[in-house]
Write a structure and sequence with these properties.
With 142 residues, this protein is mainly alpha-helical. The chain folds into two domains: 46 residues; 89 residues, no CATH class. Strands 1-2 form a two-stranded antiparallel sheet. The radius of gyration is 16 Å and the shape is globular. It starts with 10 loop residues before the first helix and ends with a helix.
């Protein structure tokens, strides 16, 4: 399985792109916006099936790699988030790499990204389970 199938653009980002592309008097979005939106069409149409269950392959990559590639882009795996990711993956019944993406996006969107940058190795990173459930629900029900 290609790791590309595990990546998705955040529903919030996609929504913002759609609003920007269709805003104002101009009803025809610019070519760059069209390409970004078209690039996510398969995910939007198949969103529920695009989220995967836990897998040994993803867990092995999460625990052993510092970077993985999705759609030609490097994605850093934060070592401090590994324990939280594994635990959250079990609770959400979600692929470990997709859980890591979701957790990093939540930290960034909630303004807590600095917790990772300034943390001492071995520090346990806590997450708000209720917030993570809401984020996962929002992403899965786009």
């Amino acid at each position: 399985m290609s790791l590309d199938t595990l990546w998705w653009t955040s529903v919030g980002q996609l929504h913002a792109q759609l609003q920007q592309a269709c805003g104002g008097d101009e009803r025809d979005p610019p070519d760059a916006s069209k390409k970004q939106i078209e690039g996510q069409l398969d995910f939007v149409l198949n969103s529920l099936s695009s989220f995967r269950a836990q897998s040994d392959g993803s867990k092995k990559l999460l625990l052993n790699e510092s970077k993985v590639s999705f759609k030609g882009k490097k994605f850093a795996i934060e070592a401090l988030l590994r324990p939280a990711t594994v635990k959250l993956s079990v609770l959400l019944d979600l692929d470990e790499l997709q859980t890591h993406i979701l957790l990093k996006r939540w930290l960034k969107d909630s303004g807590q990204e600095a917790l990772i940058e300034g943390a001492v190795p071995g520090t346990q990173v806590a997450f708000d389970l209720d917030a993570m459930l809401q984020v996962q629900h929002a992403e899965r029900t786009c």
